[in-house]
Structure formats: C-alpha cells, structure tokens
Design goal:
transmembrane helix, ExbD, 3 helices, about 140 residues, Nucleotidyltransferase, domain 5, about 30% helix
Length: about 140
C-alpha cells in the first residue's frame, strides 16, 4: 500500500505575523507609563526639601508647583522660567489647572527673601492659597 500525495490536497502555509500579542504588550506598557508619569510630579530642579516633625493634612486637588533651587533657579510645574516670566508662567498654570493653590518647594538652603518675592509674584498672578512642601520625619 502506498500513499499518494497530490499538491492539490496540501494546505498552503500561511506566513502572516499575528499582531494581537504585540498590540496587547504595547497597550500594557502605555498604561504603565501613563500611571507612573501622572503619579510623580517633579520640579525638574535638584532640591533638598526641608524636614519637619509636625504633620499637616495633605491638600488634595489641583495645584501649581513652584520650585526654588539653592542657586536661585525657579521652575513652575517642572519648567524652568526666568524672573521676568515668572508671573505669567504662574498665571497660565493657575488657569490651566483651574486652581488658586500654589505649593512652594525650595531647597533648605535657599533664602527666605527669595521665597517671599516668589510668593508676592504668585499672589499678583492670582494665587489665593499657599503651601510649603516639606518632608515628614518620624521619630
């Protein structure tokens, strides 16, 4: 008994790339990137935040983060700005966040006079509430 193979009886080999697993992996990576990037709002400056023992209640909601480095550099929402453009940058950020809260983040060795000047500029830009970022120290 012999087997006879006809070319007509053989099925053709399908050589297509299945894109479904690739798309699934890319969507998972996109979701992970979106979650991790929205959780951390960094100032963009190298800042050593002062430490405090007392704890205050965290404010939830939208706010504008203004950072001051030891060398006098200022950033608003992570973007470096000059002193001349500071009021406009804070005003635009307050409008885009639909908030009146400004959180100051400064290096512990930055000068108090500089913080007061930035606060005055922020008030002129439309800020009504102010907070100072500090790192909590537990005993």
């Amino acid at each position: 008994m012999s087997l006879k193979f006809n070319e007509e009886d053989q099925e053709e080999i399908i050589a297509d790339i299945n894109m479904t697993p690739l798309i699934d992996i890319m969507l998972v990576l996109l979701i992970i990137f979106m979650v991790t990037s929205s959780v951390s709002l960094e100032s963009g400056l190298d800042i050593d935040i002062p430490k405090t023992v007392s704890k205050t209640q965290k404010k939830e909601g939208a706010s504008v983060l203004v950072s001051m480095s030891e060398g006098g550099e200022i950033s608003v929402q992570g973007k470096k700005v000059s002193w001349n453009d500071l009021q406009q940058a804070i005003s635009e950020s307050l409008a885009s966040e639909n908030s009146k809260l400004v959180i100051f983040e400064g290096d512990k060795s930055s000068k108090l006079g500089m913080a007061v000047e930035v606060m005055d500029i922020a008030k002129a830009a439309g800020a009504e509430e102010f907070a100072i970022a500090a790192e909590s120290v537990s005993h």
